[in-house]
Amino acid sequence: MLACQVVRERDFRLVARWSIDLSERGMLVTADAPVLTGEPLIVSFKSPFARAWIDAEATVARVIHARRQGDRKRALGLFFEDLDAASRACLATVLPWFRPIAPRPRPSG
Q1: Which of the 8 DSSP states describes residue 98?
Q2: Which of 37, 53, 35 has its CA nearest to residue 45?
Q3: C-alpha to C-alpha distances, 77 to 26, 38, 80, nearest whole angstrom
Q4: For the domain 2-97, what is the CATH code?
Q5: Residue range 17-66, pLDDT digits in tens
């Protein structure tokens, strides 16, 4: 879990405070408020193991409604639209320290 602030661009309402997955291209956050797919957001978080703050524009690529078995909470898959080169390089440096999470098997049925 990584603390973050994700706000809707149109009304600056806080919609998420915790990231549960992070990559150079986007992040998965637990949702505190309903948000639509395609909605533009502003994301801010402190890079793991670094003192750098990363700010980015993002788009909601996926909404997870926590209806499937194994989903713990409503979540949002975010795609970084505008991540500057320094922020991308910072993430590329620190992310290899984390082991990838193996995907959970999909429930049959």
Answers
A1: S
A2: 53
A3: 7, 10, 10
A4: 2.40.10.220
A5: 999 888 889 999 999 999 999 999 999 998 877 778 899 999 999 998 86
The residue extents of the domains of the chain are: 2-97
DSSP structure string for 42-82: EEEEEPTTSS-EEEEEEEEEEEE-S-STT--S-EEEEEEEE
pTM for the full predicted model:
0.80
Could you give the C-alpha distances from 96 to 1, 49, 76, 89, in angstroms and in order? 16, 12, 23, 12
pLDDT at 81 over 90: yes
Chain length of the chain: 109
3 vs 82: CA distance, rounded Å = 20
